[in-house]
Amino acid sequence: MGRAPSQRGFTLIELMVVLVVVGLLISLVGMNIGGGGERRELTEVTRTLYLRMQAAADEAVLTSREMGVRFEEDNRYRFLVFDRDEAEWVPEPRGGLPGGRLPKWAEIEIQSEGDSGGGTGLGDSDAELIPHIVFFSSGQMTPFELSIWWRKQQEAVHRIQSDGVNGPDWSRPGDEPDSGEL
């Protein structure tokens, strides 16, 4: 008879627990989205380089002129054309394949047939323009292996490589290497 109706609702502790759980979920989602920025950027610039290398190989065949790509110590790369009249490599003229730059936090190592062994294989930007990889008008190219990785994740390496006969092949981190065995 004199009993008050029971109150329904959430207690302050219940509301605080819900807010803490929601806050944790939001922070986890934010870390997953934000932490992958460098990985996504590295994948995108590697994809761009790979596609440009394929285009250079195709252009060498279509125009019957040798083309090359040169990598610099500051993570820049540029495409070169062999000038037959001057018998030297010259930068790709305007309107040709653009060069590019890998992120400053990326590491790069190139091993090609012409390397004297070890090291990064990167060139000095003030030195004579000699490409690390040559795309011949015959459709062949310099055998090479180009490795690109994020300094903080050295085990996640992007590789662009060719045996010299087949065009460039891109393997992403996590791709299983082809052992060539049956």
TrEMBL record:
It is found in: Cell inner membrane. One of its GO terms (biological process) is protein secretion by the type II secretion system. Belongs to the GSP H family. NCBIfam families: IV_pilin_GFxxxE (TIGR02532), typeII_sec_gspH (TIGR01708). This is Type II secretion system protein H. Residues 46-161 form the General secretion pathway GspH domain. One of its GO terms (cellular component) is plasma membrane. Residues 160-182 are annotated as: Disordered. The chain crosses the membrane at residues 12-33. Keywords: Cell inner membrane, Cell membrane, Membrane, Methylation, Transmembrane, Transmembrane helix. It is a single-pass membrane protein.
